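The records we work with from here on pair a chain with its fold. Each token is a code from a learned vocabulary of local backbone shapes. A record is reproduced here so that you can trace the correspondence yourselves:

_____
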Amino acid sequence: MAKKAAKPKGKASPLKAEKPAKPKPRRRFRPLRFLGFIVLRSTTILIVTTMALVLIYSQINPPLTYTMWSEKKRLGHIDREWVPIEEIAPVMARSVVAAEDANFCLHWGFDVAAIRAALDEGAARGGSTISQQVVKNVFLWQGRSWIRKALETAITPAVEAIWSKKRIIEVYLNVAEMDEGVFGVEAAARGYFGVGPEDLTARQAALIAAVLPSPKTRSASKPTKWLSKRASSIADGAATIRADGRARCFE
């Protein structure tokens, strides 16, 4: 009797018909998630860029600020020349501290007592320290808004941590507007009194400091009776902070 032929070993059995693969479900576009990603990415870039600039400006002088650029666009020109703090009469630094932030050497960016006083008096006065004003002038823009104030509040501690107090005063004296379209003490000293910043007297320094809150409407060379009285008060304050040690951190 003939034997049945053996099936070849290793030969696979006929494959069953494969079912077509199911298409992968398409991802749904989620606007809120996308918006959150954009906000997070933008915030990260902003923080990294700002911190890099804070580090750079601790050693390198800031170039044209937004305020300078906007004033140049409005007026057609601005007057500004950077000068190291060593070439500025020490009484000028004491005068701006006495006028704007008498406790400059005692705080780390925010003067809580001044802020409370500003809140109590409303818009009649400001509570910003010199450190906050430097942040506003160098990194941000002028004007009142919660966004700018929030950014100012966030950046100020970084500036205080990385810059010395002397550096903060030096930058302030070079970027603050001291007459319409006039930025920094070098241009202000020559424009108002025809002298270099190193030759400013106590009276001249106090007059320039008295102009700072409103440089477009006040003049150090043609002071009103009120401005002259304010300058006398600033001069007394400058002498006081020198005597009681509140100027040691920047001298």
